[in-house]
Amino acid sequence: MITIKYEGDSIDKLFSRVDTTVQRLNRHVNTIVKESSIPIKEEIERTIPVSEIMKHPNEGHAKNDVVVSNVRTSDNGYTKSVDVGFNKTEWRMWFLEFGTVKGIVGRHYVEKAMISQQHKVLEIQAKRLQEVLLSRGL
Description:
single chain; mainly alpha; two-stranded antiparallel sheet; two-stranded antiparallel ribbon; 4 strands; 7% strand; elongated
């Protein structure tokens, strides 16, 4: 719960303070969203298998190809998100993640990383948002 102190200031000053707080939060949200995706990236890098034989040496190991995308904003402007996944090795990792009709069973490395790190992601987001609010004196 957020408490805004109303110490005899005019209502205009109060609304101005709320507006500047919202603007400051909006400026920091992209950074917070991107920063909070790091635990998922690290978990994927930690759990992804590494083969000794490199069939595609020009692409490298998938473990070294985990990336976080830039922040995207939804059409309504309220939802921000990033993608965590693979860049050059995406076409190969698709088969490991989801499987194939020819018998490769999906192992869901990315999905498992997202589920196992969800609490850390939310913890980072809450902590960083709280820091921004505290810096505004709220």
